[in-house]
Specification:
By secondary structure, the chain is mainly α. It is built from 13 helices and two strands; from the N terminus they run H-H-H-H-H-H-H-H-H-E-E-H-H-H-H. Helix 1 packs antiparallel against helix 2 and helix 7 packs antiparallel against helix 9.
Amino acid sequence: MPNFDDVGRIPREAFVVSTSLLFALCLISVCARYYIRIGVQKELALDDAFLAFGTACLTAAMVVLYITVDDMYFTQGMSYAPMRLGGPPTPQDMNRVVEFRKLVTASLIMTWVAMMAVKFSFLALFKRLIDRMYSLTLYWWVVVAFNLAVTGYGASVYVIACPHFSGMKVVSCLGGETQHRTVQYAISQLVLDVFGDLLILYIPIQLIWQVKLRLTQKLALASSLCLTVIVVIFTVTRGSGLEWQGKLDVVWEVYFQIVAAEVGLILVSLTAFRALFVSRANKKPNSPQKCPSFLTKTYQALKRILDPRRWTSNYSKDVSDGEQQRHAEKGIDGQLPKIPRATMTGMQTFVDDQGTTTRGDAELSDVALTVVKLFRIPAYDRSTVLEG
């Protein structure tokens, strides 16, 4: 039996090794994220559910792909190196091509759904940030509806572009008029996919622009929220190499779609790591309180004795009132200590000329505090968390 493992731009060994390593890294990242979300942060949200669904789809796609990897390179060899067959294809050869056509379609649909699950995971995360911003919430629903439509269209492309799963017509999917239609559908899918990613990217860019933080912190937030840019790069790469030497390169399409799904799930998992690292970095051990020295006590006693206010008639009343307050707070005479009055720190309210807070400013204040809480931004920056 001829060997076609080196036919095409991606040899079989490189294909299997790179996708397997990325898949292992993907599973490790997903498991680490769920450990952080459940074991450390003690919470789960809708974005975690989309991550689990996408991981399940990718796992199923990888199993199907590894079952048919031999037939995939055999089909690639029939297209690019038919002379290695030593003659016309036999019925057994055609059966292998037909079987590959069925299995690779199922694998591509599942990896496509996994890629879209990455998008919906990011959208679910952003919904928690813009829940109180009416305009962005309305825009969010438009983006969700658009990506739902793209999900359905993108999954159907693998069937309607070449609806042949038996007989010699299967070979026509790799060349001729059917190949041209397949490429056209694939390019339309790619354009809609990238446009959907750009619509999603507008949401974190708008949030980062309005939140007032140091440049380094804005870059850190951007690295957490704008990770879909990396998936866009793999998507464009997949579309740019669909045709090679005048024929459809199936291995190229399958490889970069799997890699895009794996990288996307890894990036979704990374959004939980920044909150963990920043929150732990902000936890500093409490410094032990030092007992005042003899000189310090002597100085404080002389200061109290020489205080000019002690010579006034109102001093005794002020002292008694202050002592009563301190005694009440400390719980003297067997009474429970009183809770000190609440103080508001770290919040900035924008008030208009009539003394009322505008709706837009209130929405920005809510979303800014949500960003601070979700990504564990240090407390000393919360007082200036919004752009003026």
